[in-house]
What does this fold into?
Amino acid sequence: MAIPEQSASRVHDLFAAFLGAAAAAVLISTPWQVDTSGPDPFYKGPLIFPLLVLALMILASLPAVWRLLNPPANASWHLDGAGLPVKTGVVLAFLVAYLFGLLLVGLEFSSWAFLLVALFYLGHRSPLKLILIPLIVTGLVVLIFKHVLGVFFPTPLVLDWFLE
It folds into this structure.
């Protein structure tokens, strides 16, 4: 049975291109927004994280810009489904909870829990995916940010409560 061909929504591409352009504007202005006068080397300074995130946002928007400039034959200006990105909104709520989790339970547990819950919510039910992906990604995040870059993360509040 053939899968019906769905038309590509140019609205999504336009929004992604807008986010990429906004990220480029903020990236250009970051030297004037972030104080870099501290004693830390560049890779440990406060400018490294915005540079990484904004550069990744720009790179992620490039395919959308390409599709806007060279649209496929079946492209149209419509929103998919009901027009509401419900799953994206729920994952965004998980990300906000993740930020609070960083303060409450720390980087390791909140990263692992966010990935586990998000993968489960998005329909990945394989125990291999639900166990290995969060463990590997959490390990890489901790290794890169805590040990290689030396980024400071505050002591989780839960540990403060039990160690007092």
Notes: The CA atoms of residues 23 and 54 lie 5 Å apart.
